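Protein modeling request. Please complete all fields; requests missing the sequence field cannot be processed.
Requester role: graduate student
Desired output: 3D structure, token encoding
Chains: 1
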Amino acid sequence: MPEREEGNQPDSGGPRLHVIAGPNVAGKSTPTRALVQSGGPLAEDVPVVNPGVIAREMRPERPEDAAFEAGREALRRRSAFLEGRP
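Delivered output (86 residues):
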């Protein structure tokens, strides 16, 4: 892996967005949990916005019925976190 040039360092003071993307039931939650527990970049008190978890919070008995609404809520939460107002 090439080293970063000095002027090409990430801005550690601003908001960051790590994206783990894929279709439903693709297995995104497992690596996300591992990254959070590993002490890596997602372990730094970074909120995780997971539409599947949001859907289960909205409709525990039938989360699939809340998928669309949960997706919209996930978009709202991501925007709020990036703007610094969770």
